User: Fold these one by one.
Assistant:
Number 1:
Amino acid sequence: MRGPITEASASDGFGPGADGGIRPFNGRHLGLLVLLTLVAVGLRLFRLGDWSFWVDEAHTFRDVTASDEEFWRSNVSNYPLGYLLLRWLLDAGILRMTGEGWLRLPFAFFGALAIPALAVFARSVVGRRAALLAAGMLAISPWHLYWSQNARGYALTMFLALLAAFTAHRAARHRSVLLALVAIAGVGVAGAAHPSGVLMAAALAAFFAGEVVSDPALRRRATRLPALIAVGLGVAGAAVWVGPTVLHAAREKPDFSAIHLAQTFGWFLGPPFVVAALGGSLAMMLRAPRREASFLIAWLLVPLLALAVVGSTSFKVTAQYGLVVLPAVYLLASRLIVELADEIRERSTRARLLRWSLPFVLMSSLASEAFLYFAKRHGERPLWREAAQYVVAQAKGPIEIWSTNEPSIRFYLDRLSFWGESRAEIHIDGIAPWLFRDAGGGGAWFEQAREEAEEAGRELYFVLTEPELEEWDRDGAFDRALRRGAHQIARYPCWVGPKDMTVVVYRVPARD
């Protein structure tokens, strides 16, 4: 049974005010929002170019510098928005170079822009205080910070999905067909940045379905033939569009596992926020108007359910595909904080400490992880640049490098090869499981690579991360051959929670 909103919540709670309008931010709120936005901008620009490219960022460089013909033949042409944005900025001379910081800059911009957007649009859903608190969480969120400092489209996708979600909420409030169409188009634009943006379509479908069920007039309109035809065409169009990307992912990532999805989400969200979001969902169900409660709960749960189904049946799904639900997590956690604070009506010091205890725990957990992101974890990326440069510094002649991350090594040592102009003195290849299979095992392939390098007169190096190698070298044959026949000459530690992203450099000595 839905309980009454407390007096404090009534003055700054859910939905529009008594006059039917959305409660505006006062001067203090606006000052705080400006401060949060500045913090978000500063964090997203800080050391933006310092982190090494990981494999997908090197792929971004490859795709944005490819010819038009190559680009439109590639799989990423199914979600081209971020790549086209970078290509246009480079062609227009707005991005002056193709270094790490420049290619990440547009995504840092959209990542920072999400903070004021969340606060402004969410105040009509959870109230001003909770909206500002959620914006503060997003501003220092290490997970959002990582993708904002990443030359990939996830931060852009989340921003566009956020806009589509709140447009849908406004459409439901005003019973506006036009706004509903804008929201649907917004989901399509988000999906054009990355297929994970289409997950918002499932959330909004569930939300709109709830609106139709609860309103007899809408129910009659929704069952008319034109509406059913429009829905059918939309579903068919989405299937035709997203289908090739799903099939490609199923071929590339066949090791599907719902456990992997749960583990990565648990790590990147953090157990305190998982619990707070669930508590916020309960608070919304008990105390908020039905529309606001169903909106946020659908936003949180439906995409996660869709990912769980796909990750259990089709291909390996990681938490980054669910970044679109992060605003809902923070909004629900923030609404729980406000509800609990409003229940503590005393004005004593003890009461104030109680009010601030939960937000302090949650915000300090984000701040500590953000500190580690900059100070200890190298932007949560392996140190491929440092490892590649070390190999060149050690080499005394032509070199051959095999790596579990060939694209990044190529970016740092042989960038012109992306345009077909390889350096003769450097040969770079990627370690792949089929190499072991074709050679008759990992140990046999190691000896084959060694002999070929010697015949070509090249020094042989292996630059790799051990967890990736273990996925491909299931029987450990290559690892044993590598340890017997090569010397480990450098190690670049990088741990992110339980994940070891340490880059190890091996040199194979010449045989007498």
Number 2:
Amino acid sequence: MMKIAIAACKLLRAALKKLGRGSSLPGAVALKICPGALGRLRIDCPVVAVTGSNGKTGTTELINRLALEAGLKTVCNSEGSNQIEGVAACLLGACDLSGRIDAGAVILESDERFCQYTFKELIPTATVVGNLFRDQLTRNGHSEFVAKELKKGLRPGTLPVLNADDPLVTSLGEGFQRVLSFGVSPAALSEPEDASHAYFDGAFCPRCGGRMSYRSHLFAHLGDYSCASCGFCRPAPTHEVTAIEDGAITVDGRYTIALSQRDMMHAQNLAAAFTVAVEVLGIEPERAAAILGGIELKNSMVARVSSYSALGRELTFMLCKHENSMAYNETIASILRGATPDGVSLLIIVDKLSRKYSASDMSWLWDLDLHRLGEPLVGRVVFSGGFAHDLCSRALLAGVPADRILVQPDIEKATSLILEHGRGDLFALTCFTDAPKLRESIRRLSKNGRK
């Protein structure tokens, strides 16, 4: 049945590719034919799984591109299907009919809740966990619940590679004899005060429930934490970012990596990729740093910064993720961090929350740091999409001046408004579900030359 499953997967993938489509369907069909197919694969190279709430697609691409540049042949589910069917489609599509995969490294992105099913029989050499934030509450519930589910996917035999700055993630390493970790040194770039104004998921120790204290914060519940009750604290990372300067980071005080994106999340993703490269793939640290510094993320789901011209203005689009407060908070923080004296103006679009789930729950807005839109450097804020008025109400309650806000549910009209009335540098923030609507609006405005 294994050979039949592999053949069916390959035929379906080829047919879908001709239609210009990627899908997890070939994997789903193959697993129906041979449910234990993943456990019967013959893989004689490191298998690296990447999971977590934010940044797993970017980290997966960084590791994959690094491995390729280092001369390793890779297999990677770069199409983005990260549940068991998508992983099966990737691996069964890459193996021969005997189930053997010819590669120097296998890099797999995995959904944080469903990795327990993907890796029930296929045990990764190493499992990277980037972070755990509140994400799609209607589907995932609280991040502590997700941590418990993710823990089931960390099978005996895998090597956890954990974010030392995240107490929830660090707690997942308990019970393992060996754990690798990565992070950003508190001395590298800490906010002057707690940046988690909307919520603080790190208030209590994940081990004993005692009150946690922080010597410094990076953002949200990430930072230098400790519990006086049981001694649980931030471990010394295997590799960490020790300095962040304009255009580059320094790892372990020695290795310089050029930055293609100036935000904390990208710095952590680079630290994770560097750790995997050196400790799991056996790449020399100097070479790993040099390769990482030359990578510009190409995947459209990852390369989340792009620029457009319309009506004589430049508009920078920054991809965020609906129902995920940290995606918006870190993006807003990075915009303000790099703002010039001329200031910035923002267009924020929330029209459709999800491609897959029918939900209109906007409770996640209360986790957004929208009070920052009231800072002096912000000139104009335009809210658009089906939830434009929800965004406006939240911003007003956060103290954003009413005369700074424009509400226009129609996305094309809202795009015109930011181009016409925006002060300083212009930015547009939305999720991949709504991004095509923004791009189409820009195309029409550019073509018609109207406001």
Number 3:
Amino acid sequence: MALPHEDLHDKIAPSILSADFARLGDEVRAVEKAGADMIHFDVMDGHFVPNLSIGIPVMESVRKVTKLPLDAHLMISEPARYIEAFVKAGANSISVHCEVCPDIPAMAKRIHDLGARASIGINPETDADKVLPFAEHLDMILVMSVHPGFGGQEFIPAALDKLRYIRRELDRRGLSIDVEIDGGVKLDNIADVKAAGANVFVSGSGIFGKPDYGKIVGEMRDLIAQTHQP
């Protein structure tokens, strides 16, 4: 029987896209010590999004320095070609975008068969109803609150309405599924996204580059804990 969404654990997921790559291992260890729940790993191919980022060798390196779950966000045009390699490199969950996934149940099954959690991402301009009919196959739905491809963008407020709609529909169907928000999440809006229905909070520049990771993660966690969803 599905748990009510209130029983889903809140999770803070620093996005290493905003970390100092010259000292990436130290950065990952620092956010783990600060109390992060998982590491968000953005993969860009220069095709699905207009930028390139990190790939499998970097994930293998990150896996060696942390025990935290690694959340691989594949912003790429042909995700099916790389899912197995990312799981083997250490990914605990795989997010594939619905815009390049014509068969969501089949994609979720493949990810599950490889031993990872299955997630589907939704770009700001994409309707949530493209994913919700297949929600029972998923462990998580990822809502983009910026246009994917670049770190440091401002949060798109319309994402809050999408979060509310998704959480309401999941609750209506009795589905206990993580809802992840990714893009522009910082201290000044993390309570709003929690209230709207998210329980997994990706933050890049909102954490990395700050003088005290423990302080910022602790403040985020306090704001989340003080905020209740309807």
